[in-house]
Structures are given as structure tokens and as C-alpha cells.
Amino acid sequence: MSLSNKFMTLKYSLKTAFNGLRANKSRSALTILGIVIGITAIMMVMSLGQGAQDLILGQIQGIGAKTIGIAPGRQPKGMMDALATFTDSLKQKDLELLSSKANVPHAAKIMPVVFGSEKAVFENNATRPTIFGVNDMFSELYDVYPDQGRSMTEEEVRSYADVVVIGSKIKEDLFGNQEAVNQKIKIKNRNFRVIGVLEKKGAGSLVNFDNVAVIPYTTAQQYIFGIKYFNRLAVEADSEANVAKTVEDIKITLRNSHNIDDPEKDDFFVETQADAIKTVGTITSVLTLFLAAVAAISLIVGGVGIMNIMLVSVTERTREIGLRKALGATSKNIMLQFLLESVGLTATGGVIGISLGVGLSILVALVINKFAGLSWGYNFPVSAALLGLGVSGLIGLVFGIYPARQAAKKSPMEALRYE
Q1: Closest CA to 257 of 81, 69, 72
Q2: Over the stretch 345-392, which tens digit does the pLDDT of each residue have?
Q3: pLDDT for 280-310, tens place per residue?
Q4: I need a surface site. Which of 4, 90, 298, 386 has the fewest CB within 10 A?
Q5: How far apart are CA 298 and CA 393, in angstroms?
């Protein structure tokens, strides 16, 4: 067969397939519903997953490339390791050793962190902020400053002072439009004088600074949480070039302090911002792919539905198949027609699913930005769109082969006698 004849055959098969689908519009629409739902879900999951990753990474990068985090326990590599991070291995002795230039010469700043949640009360108003026990380095390390009042001082940290800097949401919850600075709020039956209100930052993925109450870590340990250890230590190196050297100095100092000879037995882990970015990127990518795989199950369900409908269509159109074969159509022509119908259904479902996924993802991003106060950006997942079109077409091909073969095998005489 010449190339022009092949083209004419393909063109006629496409036209016949299109007419076959158009003759049953309602059934065709319902048939592709599973494909549409699956592709829409995959598009939304991939888009929102990328948005979440960008937001979290932006928060980490905002802390600063020179900041090094120290956490108790083993570095999490699984569920049991995650549970092991809730230990009390970081003590005052460690803070003093790490503060010594002899041990960590390139450490410019060091801040202990203890945190938890407690009720805060002012007159008849109450709320439950995250209590952050830190030192006077808090604003510099986290780049968040009071827009009313001031930050705590080193002297207030040393003297276990009952002072607090509150986030903007805590100020609204407790004071409304009243002046908050120099008022006193009660936290765990202690009166804390408000010395500052933090600038409004919006809900972040790591710490929502609008919902915190920042107090001296000494006060938090002694009077609020009743502990003698730290939940975290934050160290800022004097330059980005010295971050790696500072990390090594921290590890050596803590191993000596904890009498650890084998690094595999470390009861702490040190993480730079680059490490945190890599870890978060891996976690969010795996989670996004997992959710996309779950959403893809509906594509399989949709494919089975298409095969079922195409088998029904073959039965209903038996006389048409017989007539076409009697007029000279080959089994190959019949099979091609039904395959094109199947692929056409799934490809149409893929296009509709991508369009719906894009629209809903943009809508969700706008809602999150407006009502959650997050800087959530929309991302068009090109890979997901291409994958969606490819997979939908492949599903149409795979699940359309059996019905198409059944149609192609029909005998012209038997098909024409079919009632």
C-alpha cells in the first residue's frame, strides 16, 4: 500500500472513530471521568507538592547559610531515629564548651533553644502560643525584629527575667487594639512583662513567628518547662567559608564532652542549611511522588471502565462492523478504528484533567495565600502534564487492544446476521 493510501486509510479511521464517539456523547463523557479525576489529582498533587517544597526551602534559606543547627539524638533516617531525637543530651556544659573560642574559633554567635506550648492570659483573654526560650541573639539569627518595643538583653537572660516578646497574632488575641508593650501577661502562673511585639511575618513552614512568645531560655528552663537541657542549639559561623570547619569543631567538642569515641554512637547531630535543604527536598519529593502514585490508581480504574465500555460498544455495533467488512474493510482497519476511539477517549480525558488540575491548583494557591497568610507560589508541573498525557494515551492503547481485537475478529457474515 502506498503512503498516500495509508494516509487516507488513517484519515478515514480517525473520522470514523470520531463519529463513533460523537454518536454517544453522554457515554463518552462518563467513560473518561475516571481519567479526568486521575489526571486532575496528579496535577494538583505535583503542583501543590512543589509549592510546599519551595515554601519550606525558602524558610530554611531565610535563616541564613552561615547558621548551623545542633539537635539531640541520632540524625533521623527512619521512624525509630525520629523518636530518638527527643532526648536530653544537650546540656549547659555543652553550651559553655561551644561558646569557647578555643573549641570553636569560627563561631560568631551561639543560641540555645527550648520550646513548648503553654497558655498565656491577659485579663479575660487567653491564647496558647509556642513558647520560645532563647537568648539575646534570637532576632539576629532568625532575622525577625520587634516593630514595637525592643528585644530582650543579655542581662535579662542572665538574671532569669520575666520578660516576653510576643508575635503579632498573640498581641491581637490578648490585647486587640490596646497597647501591649509594658502590659503583663500570665504564663504558667508567672507574670511576664511585654517588652516587644514582633513584626508580622505570616505563617511560615518552619516557625510561625506571629504565634510565639519569646522569653529568656533561663526563665523557660527554670520556671516554665522545668528542664535542664536544650531542645536545640543554633550556631552562626563567622563566614560561609568557615561553615564546614565550624561543623567539624562542633562535632569534636561535643564528642569530647559526651565521651564518645565512635561517631556512629553520636547522641547529637549537626545540620547546616545546605543539609536541611537537601533533606527537605528529598522528603517532599518522595511524599509528592507517593501521593501522585495513589492518585494514579484512578487512572487504572478509568482504564478498566474504558475497556468495559468499548466491549459494550463492539457488541452494539456488530452489524456496523459486518457491513464495513463486507464493503472491503480489513480486520486491521476495524482494529485501528476501535483503538483510535479508545485512545481518543483517554487523551481527551487527559487534556480535560490537565486543565482542571491547573485551574484548581491556582485556586488552592490563591486561597492559601489569602486565608493562611503564606507566600505560596503556583507551579505548573510540566513533567506531570506530559506524564498525564502520555499515561492517558497509553492506558487507552492498552485497555483498548482487547475490545479492538474482538471487533476485528468478527466474521462479516455472522456480524450481518446479528440481531
Answers
A1: 72
A2: 788 888 888 888 888 888 888 887 777 656 676 777 777 777 777 777
A3: 666 677 777 777 777 677 677 777 777 777 7
A4: 4
A5: 15
- The Cα 301–Cα 309 span in angstroms is 12
CB atoms within 10 A of CB 166: 34
Beta bridge partners of 269: 71
Contact of 26 with 264, CB cutoff 8 Å: no
- In the numeric block, which cell numbers belong to residue 367? 486561597
SS3 state at 398: helix
Residue type, 277: I
Can you tell me the distance from the alpha carbon of 174 to that of 192, in angstroms, rounded to the nearest whole number?
A: 13
Q: How far is CA 293 from the centre of its chain?
A: 15
Closest residue by Cα to residue 253 from 277, 227, 231, 235: 235
The DSSP code for 289 is H
Beta carbons within 8 Å of 109's beta carbon, 6+ residues apart: 137, 140, 141, 234, 235, 236
What is the helix (H) or strand (E) element at residue 130, kind and residue range? strand 130-134
Measuring CA to CA, which residue among 208, 200, 221 is closest to residue 88? 221
Q: Are β-strands 268-272 and 190-198 bridged in parallel, bridged antiparallel, or unpaired?
A: unpaired
SS3 content of the chain, % helix, strand, coil (to 5): 60, 15, 25
**DSSP H helical ranges for 2-91:** 3-22, 25-31, 33-63, 79-84
Separation of alpha carbons 147 and 209, rounded Å: 13
Three cell numbers, residue 102: 578555643
- CA separation for the pair 106, 128 (Å, rounded): 38
pTM of the model: 0.58
Measured distance CA(353)–CA(238) in Å, rounded: 51
